[in-house]
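Students often ask why we bother predicting the structure of a whole assembly rather than each chain alone. The short answer is interfaces. A chain on its own may look different once its partners are present, and contacts between molecules only exist in the joint model. In this exercise we take four input lines together and write out one structure for the complete complex. Read the inputs first and try to guess which parts will touch.
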Amino acid sequence: MQHGRGIALNSFSAVSDETRRTILDLLIKKPLTVGQINRHFSSLTQPGISKHLAVLRKARLVKVSVSAQNRVYSLDKEGFLELEKWISKYQEFWKSNLDSLVKYLDRNSKSERKVIQK
Amino acid sequence: MQHGRGIALNSFSAVSDETRRTILDLLIKKPLTVGQINRHFSSLTQPGISKHLAVLRKARLVKVSVSAQNRVYSLDKEGFLELEKWISKYQEFWKSNLDSLVKYLDRNSKSERKVIQK
DNA sequence: TGGTTATATAACTGGAATGTAATATATAGT
DNA sequence: ACTATATATTACATTCCAGTTATATAACCA
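Now the answer. The structure tokens for the assembled complex follow.
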């Protein structure tokens, strides 16, 4: 691998791809094999799907269990926790009424004399 | 713009970049101008920062207010709502004890006779 | 007015991501 | 043992993205 899909280890870049989000949407319903997932994507080849799954695996958003020649993929909590942890910080921010204070300041930003620190 | 950063409109790809996540981390503390943000990144040029801010703006993760030559950037709730909405679906999934059921099935996947639908 | 400061935009470049075809590997079934 | 099936990996092509330099735009200040 001279580079390619092996770098995207964090869950943020993993979910930035539309196809991978669709795969997660499929797996939330029930665990699926690679072939079953592949059948949902008429425009993608099997190796393409396998690569996306590798990215999701590295980000710990999915996990595999081997069953004969089949690999059954299902959601893995780990990666989702990373995402949740990150977003919860901003949820806290919006929860506090600092939110409306900023809105108030915004409304007056053009008329008010505002000191901007260099 | 023959391509570049103008395509990434959704909040997922916007937050997939480490630099942009750092910018959001700065803005959660307080609104900042482009120059102030730029000073936090010794390795980046001003146009580089402006482009990241353009991506964040299109994803509605930040908003601007003009104050003379300064543009004061602050967090915008819209984009975060999109992210929260997406992740809440998975939070629900993990909340249900389907989670532990899957774990149970995983443990037994090698020993059990499992029927996989083609 | 002229010069400086703050920011955005355009054009370009290198490297990373995404997709493919070909191939390897392992298992099932006959 | 032989063939078919399921999946991963490799090598490669193409597209996309983050960064740069150069330049445009606009407002401030002397």
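Check your guess against this: The first strand of chain A starts at residue 32 and ends at 33.
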